Amino acid sequence: MYGLWRHLSIPRSPCFVGMSREEPGVFEIARTVEQLWAFFALLGMTTAGDDDDAAERLEPFLRGSGISPKLTAEISRAVGDERDRFGAHPAFGDNCPLGLRRDRIGDGRFPSLDRPETWAFACGYEFDDQLAHSSAPRWLNGPALTAFTEELGKRSWSGAWLSLNSRGWRMEDAISACLALPSTFLQADATYLTAWADEVSGFVTGY
């Protein structure tokens, strides 16, 4: 599963991320649209395996994205399905997303374990597990609902938002938490979150 990752009112640029059953959190796959196309091209060729026509079928898509089909095919054969080697593609260059780096050393705004300065703007799903570190925010190393309640009480809307996007929620509590956030903080997103809460609430009640 892949999508655009954006936090509300958090000083971080949006990026593209992926999720999988094998990994407990989200991982950064692209910081630009060009990188996103390169990622999916490598993924498509890897999935095609021994299908020699895969590169040819992807060629119009790649050329339209300004990416060399020949080079992409060569890199795909060299790295196989090892996602943390996709960064060898020149589309990623010196601005390689964290999820495609074998060394797992972060250099952008996506949070990483080796950079404590990024933790205050991170949510629990951006790490593989809770951070058992004394300087980590409460929502990264404790019950998310407790952290949310504390942040809401302090009128720390960003802290409440990051708590809401961390692990350990029951669906009923998450719905109540969504509705507790002030619309002035959510701005245009309030309508979408309220609609989601109403829809899910009906499902939970019916179930």
Textual characterization of the structure:
The chain is built from nine helices and three strands; from the N terminus they run βββααααααααα. By secondary structure, the chain is mainly alpha-helical. A three-stranded antiparallel β-sheet has the order 1-2-3. The longest helix is centred in the C-terminal third of the chain and has 17 residues, at 190-206. The chain starts with a strand and ends with a helix.
Tell me the overall shape: elongated
Helix content: 40-55%
Rg, alpha carbons:
20 Å
Q: Low-confidence parts, pLDDT < 50 over ≥5 residues? A: 203-207
Number of strands: 3
Number of domains: 2
Structural class: mainly alpha
Specify the biggest β-sheet.
3 strands, antiparallel
How confident is the prediction overall: mean pLDDT?
A: 81
Oligomeric category: single chain
The ordered string of helix (H) and strand (E) elements is EEEHHHHHHHHH
Beta-strand fraction estimate: 5-15%
Terminus-to-terminus distance: 26 Å
